[in-house]
Amino acid sequence: MSFIIAYITNQDMEAAKKVASHLLGKRLIACANLMPIESMYWWRGKVEEGSEVVAIVKTRRENWEKVKEEVLRIHPYETPCIMRIDAEANRGYEEWIREETV
Predict the structure, then answer these.
(1) What's the pLDDT tens digit per position in 40-78?
(2) In which band, very low, low, confident or very high, does the pLDDT at 22 lie, cut at 50, 70 and 90?
(3) Residue 34: CATH number of its domain
(4) Concatenated DSSP letters for 27-78?
(5) What's the Cα-to-Cα distance from 96 to each of 1, 2, 33, 52, 90, rounded to whole Å?
(6) What is the domain count for the chain?
(7) Predicted TM-score of the model (pTM)
(8) What is the torsion angle, in degrees rounded to the nearest 10, for the CA atoms of residue 76, residue 73, residue 83 and residue 42?
């Protein structure tokens, strides 16, 4: 598999759009889907919950380290969630991702 999805949580839609726009501007990703979610998680010894926005971004596997570095550089969270998921898609979509990213 030569494509990945990165799953990135953000504090709100504004932050998610900033991350997605930044990655799109650098042509590190071909697409971002932004969805509001409700999260529950451990943080500093207690369970927290709140609203977040997840960005699901699609890119080439070889862009993973650059995507991670760029998100860490601009993300407002102290410890952002940036997860990689290996992916396969139909040939036309994979070709489109390859054409739209560097």
Answers:
(1) 999 999 999 999 999 999 999 999 999 999 999 999 999
(2) very high
(3) 3.30.70.120
(4) TS-SEEEEEEEEEEEEETTEEEEEEEEEEEEEEEGGGHHHHHHHHHHH--SS
(5) 15, 13, 16, 29, 10
(6) 1
(7) 0.95
(8) -40
